[in-house]
Amino acid sequence: LSLMLSSIQGIIEKDKPRYIAVAIQSCTRGPVYELIKLIKKIDKTIIVILGGPFATLKYELLLKNFPFDYVVIGDGEKTLVELLNTGGCFLNPKPGLLLRSFLLLP
What we know:
By secondary structure, this protein is an alpha/beta fold. 46% of the residues lie in helices and 15% in strands. A four-stranded mixed beta sheet has the order 1-2-3-4, sandwiched between helices. Mean pLDDT is 85; it is low at 102-106.
């Protein structure tokens, strides 16, 4: 895992992406958590978008424990394109997309 994260860190620092989208499954949630922590450590302004089966089923768990910006619920192909076309600035709630800053969590 540390070798993978080191390689990814180099890519992020070189390419300076504005967005990083990650598909998460139950068996990858540990490494994905570490990846998100690394991304936010490198640059807090990178928008992290989670999706996939685990994100759809366990979005509440992710909201409470993972430092991402958006989670796509269900089929995300269209939603992800719309999000990227807005520059990551959805100001209104949208079906199939949760934005962390609009949610009040305990």
